[in-house]
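Morning!

This is the sequence you dropped in the shared folder:
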Amino acid sequence: MTIFDVDIDALTGGPTELDRYRGSVVLVVNVASRCGLTPQYAGLQSLYETYRDRGLVLVGVPCDQFGGQEPGTADQIAEFCSVNYGVTFPVTEKVEVNGPGRHPLYRELVGDGEDIQWNFEKFIVAPDGTVAARFAPGTTPDDSELVAAVEKLLPH
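The structure's back. Tokens below.
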């Protein structure tokens, strides 16, 4: 089983259908709109725009487990992302990434033994569904190591 086999709904309702991204490089990021790291949305959108034509898919996963920094409804989150950062990458329903309610997507990304540190932790998933790299929340989307890890997996 990989992330491509996990069911998760889109922020606006209905399935996200991660299976359609099988064969693509996927960057999964747990996001929040009221966090000190929230400005990373701009960098994530830029990274997505730069590499989407080469096969990068970016998936934002709202989570309210860190200091209550994503309290909004689905509509509020969607509006915030659009109005403030022009987000065009897929955003899922709000989920739990840690604890007994951990969403199956995050069970696939981290297993059962580790926790997500904070908002904006990043996972690069290879086209075969394996986790190729994990980056701390403070790692910005334009960080040279993160960009190199994405480029390494993309077709040239």
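Headline: The chain has a mean pLDDT of 96.

More detail when I'm at my desk.
O.
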